Amino acid sequence: MAEKEPNRPEKTEPLAEAGAECGDPASTAAAGSDAELARLRAELEDAKNRALRGWAELENYRKRANRQIEDERRYAALPLLRDLLPVLDNVKRAVEAAEKNHDTASLLEGIKLVLQQLGTVLARHHCTPIEALGRPFDPNVHDAILHQPAADVPANTVIQEVHQGFQLHDRVVRPAQVIVSSPVGNAKGAAPETTDEEPRPAE
Question: What domain range includes position 181?
Fold first, then answer.
């Protein structure tokens, strides 16, 4: 009578190796999803860091720009003041010389030179006088303080400049105060026109 062979263990290792070689679809999909998720998280973190760095740089630039604008506003008159100081020195010298010599003629000459120097300084900083005398009245740059009848000039013509006006580039710093001509016939208090026709008696 033949003896039974003892139970042999099943050979599962080759099957497992075969499964690993073929690849389990569920395991492969899960591994791929984890890798994709990790990659997306890394990209998101990198984008977040770049956004934070960009915001910080923008904020620093804004602060520097504000400080620069504030400094420019605060010290905008510095070049003009530096140019005006020599004019002030010349005025003092002229006054001191007049006090010592009691010579009004030299004082007047010194004041004229200072006035000329002051005009040069203003022109250097683009502050120029407004043309007024003999020109048509322009309410944008002239301030009429009086109207006078004038027969020898057209109406609305500047016939006298009371205070000189100035403008910076194309912006008025101070309008020129002027007296403007008006037609003689329209002058205040002028006699009304008369005719040769005799008045009719009342009925």
Answer: 128-186
Instruction: Report d(CA 52, CA 42) in Å as an integer.
Output: 15
Domain membership of residue 74 (yes or no) is no
Check residue 187 and report its DSSP letter: S
pTM over 0.70: no
C-alpha distance across the termini of the chain, in Å = 175
Q: For 64-120, give the secondary structure using H, E and C.
A: HHHHHHHHHHHCCCHHHHHHHHHHHHHHHHHHHHHHHHCCHHHHHHHHHHHHHHHHH
Kindly state whether residue 45 falls inside one of the protein's structural domains. no
Residue 48 forms part of a structural domain: no
| Residue 180, helix vs strand vs coil | strand
What is the tally of structural domains in the chain?
1
Q: List per-residue pLDDT tens for the chain, 203 residues long.
A: 455 555 555 554 444 444 445 556 666 777 778 888 888 888 899 999 999 999 999 999 999 999 999 988 899 889 999 999 999 998 888 888 888 877 778 788 888 999 999 999 999 999 999 999 999 999 999 999 999 999 899 999 999 999 999 999 999 999 999 999 998 865 443 433 433 444 444 43
CA–CA separation, 129 and 175 (whole Å)? 10
